[in-house]
Amino acid sequence: MAAMTLGRYMPYDSLMHRLDPRLKLFAMVAIMVSIFLRFGSVWTDLALYGLMFLFILILMRITKIKLRQLYRQLKPLWFMLLFLLFINLLLPNTQDISTYFDVWGVKIYYAALLQTFYIVFRLVLMIALTLIITASTRPLDLTYAIEWYLTPWKIIRFPSHEVAMTMSIALRFIPTLLEETYRIMKAQASRGVDFVHGKLKEKLRAIVSLIVPLFISAFQRSEELANAMEARGYDPSATRTRYRELTWHRRDFVALVMMLVYLGGFFYLLMTGFTLPL
Amino acid sequence: MPIKLHHVFHVYSPKTPFQFEALHDVSLVIEEHSFTAIIGHTGSGKSTLIQHLNALLLPTSGSLEVNEIVIQANQLPKAVKQIRQYAGVVFQFPEAQLFEEHVIEDVMFGPLNFGKSKVEAKQAAQLALQQVGLDESFYDRSPFELSGGERRRVAIAGILAMQPKVLILDEPTAGLDPVGAAMMMSLFTQLHQQGMTIIIVTHDMELVLKYASHVKVMEHGKVIKQSTPQDLFYGKDASKDFIKPPLVQLIEALRKKGKTIPSTQERSLADLVQGWKVS
User: Fold this and answer.
1) Which residues of chain A make contact with B159, given a CB cutoff of 8 A?
2) How many domains are there within chain B?
3) d(CA A71, CA A77)
4) Interface probe with B: pick from A10, A184, A191, most Cβ of B within 10 Å
5) Mean pLDDT, consecutive 10-residue segments, chain A of 278 residues?
6) Residue A125 resides in a domain
7) What ipTM was reported for this prediction?
8) Domain match, B197 and B228 both
9) CB B120: neighbour CB atoms within 10 A?
């Protein structure tokens, strides 16, 4: 159960927690965009990526997330990273095939190695970002923020409230379904199911014994919820007020300016074709 | 063999903001062939405790002994399957664990997992279904078309078919109608008389008084009292911390009115009436 911390809200009190979720969402998108920029030369790329990494480390620090937590998130991805490396080495997606070294007659291109590094690095930073935003923002606040960004689309009759409602229900039920999963896993383990060891056929049966009850309870829950909402007269198109309003503080403004400077800075470097004199 | 717990602690999600100590220094012995009730408020650690008894949860520190197999802190014992077969746990709302197409297959699932052959498993399943009072007409029905009470009986049969020596039940009567609950309890008494050790977690004091031979009272992850129902409700261990069963309240009220009720062993209203007739 301890492994399931990605996407889990961490009830600390930090500056990051107090920031407006709308701002945080914008900042996340801005930083993600910056992660995918490519600059003039390899060394410039590396230096600027280092800078982004440092920035994200500072953000993690502010959110009171320890490096250990990030590491724990990455651990299950080991296999995928290895796979990425493998694919990239065998099928290098690069024009630069001038430098390579031989391993048992297979050409390993430096450019392919670098490519893999970029992918892995971006993945790690994205996961770190997701960790920061989900750990510091209640899921409900996040959906409010998304709803706020969707509001303008109401002009073309986009059901922004309904979409936000659906999202918040989905988010709300993630922990519930997880809990249910653990409960059923335990119940089946009591009946001698081994989810970890055993032959493939046994494992498949083990999974079936988990998934069928899980689906049944999920459908039951959704039906109960729908009935409960209807019983209380829920009308998706009604205008309604909120218990918690999002309020924009001065710190949000300061953070917004910082993010604009951050994004603007990287775009400026991109536009001017900046390269490190190396 | 009795089940023994030595200074068992259990901490959920250690070293995270969600850290929570559910068991604190729990030492107790559950006698073989006893009918032990574990009572306590919601969140007192009852469910955590029973999950230790078949190694679904492992102690954070301390150890326990089940069927002469020692479970050390944070160490899944090699003989975990033996433990799980020895001590069968019926969770709260066990009907949620049904998944097979037919009732009989679902009940056979446990024995098959413990290495029984198809024939043996089928025999065990038939016996278990008979014990819970479901006849052959149920074998080929889908568990999902049964009523709630029937589904629960199928789920309990699924555990009984494993032929455990210890049956652990987490609120087995929750959500059942009074008739269904009474049938359930008479099934457990019957199994108890056949020599099975029964451990039951419940909020229903009436059940405790009527059926249990031993009571463990839990509070904030600690075992605060180990007693018998008679001592707990009538005698030296009586306490104001929990609501007494209606029968005990009735007897106390009668005594206050000046009626003499000599015995303090009454387990049910029938006992009280019987005692009255005799005197």
Assistant:
1) 190-191
2) 2
3) 10
4) A191
5) 59 87 92 86 86 91 86 81 81 68 73 83 89 87 87 85 84 85 92 83 87 92 93 84 81 92 88 76
6) yes
7) 0.88
8) yes
9) 14
